[in-house]
Write a structure and sequence with these properties.
The chain has a 3-stranded parallel sheet with strand order 1-2-3. The chain is mainly alpha-helical. Helices cover about 30% and strands about 5% of the residues. It has a domain of about 80 residues.
C-alpha cells in the first residue's frame, strides 16, 4: 500500500524530526458550549433615549439651552430699547419746519439752512396744535403768519414774535 506514515514534528517545534509518540498528534473535537436560554421578555436598551431628568420637576431644559434662551431675551430687550430711542425733538419745531419746507418747495429730507429761514415770507400754521413759536424767530424775512385755531398757543409767544418783527402781520 505505499510507504508507512512517519509522524511529523509537533506544532511549535523548530525541527522536522519524527515524533516518538504518535498519539501526540491526536486531535480532540471541540467541546460544545451550551448557549444560555433567552428570556421571553426583550431586554431593555442599555442606553435609554433622552428623557427629562426626574428631579421633581415636570420638565428641565439642558444647561446650554437655558443660557441660549436667556441670551436671546436679553438681546431682544436691548435691541428694542435701541430702536425705540428717538431723539427728543420739539413738536413745534417739526411743525414749523415742515411748513417752511412746503412754503419753499424743499424736499422734507433736505436739512434747512439759515438761508432757507430768511427766504420765508408767508407761513400758514392754522390749526397745527402749536404751543411755542421759537423756530419762527429765525425767519427774518417773515411778513405774515396765520396762527389761527391754535388754542394752546400762549399769548406771550405771539407778543414776543410781534415785538421781534414789527412789520409782521399775524392772524390769530
Amino acid at each position: 500500500m505505499g510507504t508507512p506514515a512517519v509522524p511529523v514534528a509537533a506544532a511549535g517545534s523548530t525541527a522536522a524530526e519524527p515524533l516518538a509518540d504518535p498519539s501526540a498528534l491526536s486531535v480532540s473535537a471541540p467541546k460544545t458550549v451550551e448557549k444560555p436560554k433567552e428570556d421571553p421578555k426583550p431586554k431593555e436598551d442599555p442606553k435609554p433615549k433622552a428623557k427629562a431628568k426626574k428631579s421633581g420637576k415636570k420638565f428641565q431644559l439642558p444647561g446650554w439651552t437655558k443660557w441660549a434662551v436667556i441670551g436671546t431675551a436679553v438681546l431682544m430687550v436691548i435691541g428694542s430699547l435701541l430702536f425705540t430711542m428717538v431723539p427728543d425733538v420739539d413738536p413745534n419745531e417739526q411743525i414749523i419746519e415742515q411748513a417752511i419746507h412746503i412754503e419753499l418747495g424743499i424736499p422734507l429730507e433736505e436739512e434747512l439752512t439759515d438761508a432757507h429761514f430768511q427766504k420765508v415770507t408767508n407761513l400758514v400754521l392754522r390749526a397745527k396744535g402749536l404751543t411755542g413759536l421759537e423756530r419762527l424767530h429765525k425767519c427774518s424775512g417773515l411778513l405774515s403768519v396765520d396762527l389761527s385755531a391754535n388754542p394752546e398757543l400762549p399769548e406771550a409767544e405771539i407778543t414776543a414774535l410781534q415785538t421781534k418783527f414789527t412789520n409782521l402781520k399775524i392772524t390769530k
